[in-house]
Amino acid sequence: MIIVKVDTLLFRTCRNYLIVRIETADGLVGYGDATLNGRESVVKELIDAHLSEMLVGKDAANITDIWQMIYIGTYWRGGPVTMTALAGIDMALWDLKGKLSGLPLCDLIGGRSRKKMEVYCHVHGTTLEQLIENISGKLALGFRIVRYSFDTSDSESNLVFRQPHQDVSKGHIEIDSINTCSEVWDSRMYAADLIRITRAIREEFGPHLGLIHDVHSRLTVAQARQTLKQLESLGLLFIEDPIDSKNLKGLSLLSQCCTVPIGIGELFNTIDECRDIIAHQEIGFLRIDISHFGGITPALRAAAVAEAFGVKVAFHGPSDISPLAHAACYHIDASIPNFGVQEYVNFEPEVLNVFQIPYAYQDGYITIDNTPGLGVTIDESLIDTDSTYIKSYLPILRDRMDAVHNW
Ligand code: GCO
Ligand code: MG
Predict the structure, then answer these.
(1) Bridge partner residues of 22 (DSSP)
(2) Ligand 1 — pocket residues by CB below 6 A?
(3) What is the per-residue pLDDT across 328-343, written as a single tens digit (0 to 9) for each?
């Protein structure tokens, strides 16, 4: 399986995607996801200008050696750009190995530990009434766990604090102009609403609905301690990113003072950043993003470390990574003993025409078939790499005094 060609496909189908395509001398092609929201062209440049020439001539079967060569060998390790580039390459290599052996990824990494994987969906409401109605809609689709978010309105100042920043009907966070990307935020009002709204959801739906809320690092440690204390009796499955996820001491304080399980990880790029919080059992769920953590190889290692300390895995699964990465998550979810739950998004039909997926949703669970490798068939004839990419941006949050706020 000697690598003869490494390409990057940067294109837009509903949103931007960056796909790594590796071809071997025997004519096999493997694909990996290297999409990094708002930074796709930088990741592409890293692969095209520096990493692809390290791969040509290597045996694609030696995934660990190639991974180590890029991670350790190139010295400049870590960070979202480097680790996303490496993730795209790593996924493509696993895809190739699966295609060569005729086995799906989950079989290459130990086989299936479960028949189906429980998933949760996002649900948003601009008002409490709308949120309750939208949750009922998700329950009717079979979901047993939801990640809820809401808008907080301040009638006195006529301001609306949106959480998350996204046009939920579009399902995307990113926007097309840097000049329109600022939003206003008030953590005090939000925290009060979080308690009020969570209590109302619990009262409406009873004790069995699985509830997740993503704070997206918007609270300080002190605010989070106060808020989580009041959420304790409401039985959340987990609270996501309650504070800045790089504040490890803060996480330690939080986990010691509150019983709400913490889920964290989408901003980690290497095991160095989360080794201690796992080993100290400060989190309930490890939420690394396969596409930003260097790929399948390190995700498996991190999952094994988590297992040793009784931490469950709940991989990040937003719409801003491609169905290829979602397929990789499902394969790992199917295999590892400490799978917790998986974040699920429903891709638009246009996206699923390009990425034909091996997995299917039914009644709150995902099943994945036996197509070799990651199992995603990519229809390259539908990809227009020349003209479709449009630079996009993540929004910037500002408080009432117009100071930049944690996003
Ligand atoms: C989640 C995340 C996303 C991120 C997004 C940034 O838990 O799904 O917080 O919504 O904001 O991936 O690009
Ligand atoms: Mg999140």
Answers:
(1) 6, 30
(2) 37, 164, 173, 214, 216, 240, 266, 316, 318, 320, 343
(3) 999 999 999 999 999 9
